């Protein structure tokens, strides 16, 4: 058994055409001890850092340990860190399911799960009282900083206002938020977030 995360379109078509492959929803059911054991074996530094953070979580030292440890942890998806190598070792089972599932990986995906505001297609995650819209529809607005968000004459935008930063993009480009994070990192601005 193998595990391939986000194959390109041609590879995915070839996989599906054989009938021998399954689409993985990325849902893993595993005992914590088993997952941590694999992580300790495959990514020991990541394991040790996460265990250190978990041990400090309910203590007064939590923030200091988190601030000291989190930035140095390897940034890697569980798919690459554990699932792929463990699947290559034959230690992963696939269980078919017929349940609903949404991959909420960006704000555009999130919009599909939120109720529409007064029939305009606009979705608000947070206090509607902090949002002013004039001639705009189909947007995803997140007023998380507690101050008003005003959108004038723009359709299908994403505005996320947090105490640390403001993100403005189109719903079509919501998956590219990681590009902004990378740019902030390259400019040394991610320390401000």
From TrEMBL:
Top-level taxonomy: Bacteria, Bacillati, Actinomycetota, Actinomycetes, Micrococcales
Protein name: Mannose-1-phosphate guanylyltransferase
Domain Nucleotidyl transferase: 3-112
Origin species: Luteimicrobium album
Domain MannoseP isomerase/GMP-like beta-helix: residue ranges: 130-184
InterPro entries, per the entry: ManC/GMP-like_b-helix (IPR054566), Mannose-6P_isomerase_type2 (IPR051161), NTP_transferase_dom (IPR005835), Nucleotide-diphossugar_trans (IPR029044), RmlC_Cupin_sf (IPR011051)
């Amino acid at each position: 058994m193998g595990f391939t995360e986000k194959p390109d379109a041609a590879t995915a078509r070839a996989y599906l055409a054989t009938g021998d492959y399954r689409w993985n929803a990325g849902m893993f059911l595993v005992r914590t001890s088993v997952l941590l054991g694999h992580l300790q074996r495959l990514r020991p530094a990541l394991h040790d850092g996460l265990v250190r953070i978990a041990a400090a979580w309910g203590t007064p030292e939590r923030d200091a340990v988190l601030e000291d440890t989190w930035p140095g942890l390897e940034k890697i998806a569980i798919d690459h860190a554990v699932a792929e190598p463990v699947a290559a070792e034959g230690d992963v089972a696939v269980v078919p399911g017929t349940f609903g599932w949404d991959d909420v990986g960006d704000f555009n995906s999130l919009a599909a799960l939120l109720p529409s505001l007064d029939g305009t297609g606009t979705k608000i995650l947070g206090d509607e009282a902090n949002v002013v819209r004039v001639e705009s529809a189909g947007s995803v607005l997140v007023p998380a900083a507690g101050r008003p968000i005003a959108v004038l004459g723009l359709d299908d935008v994403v505005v996320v206002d947090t105490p640390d930063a403001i993100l403005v993009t189109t719903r079509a480009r919501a998956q590219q938020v990681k590009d902004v994070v990378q740019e902030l990192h390259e400019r040394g601005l991610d320390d401000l977030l």
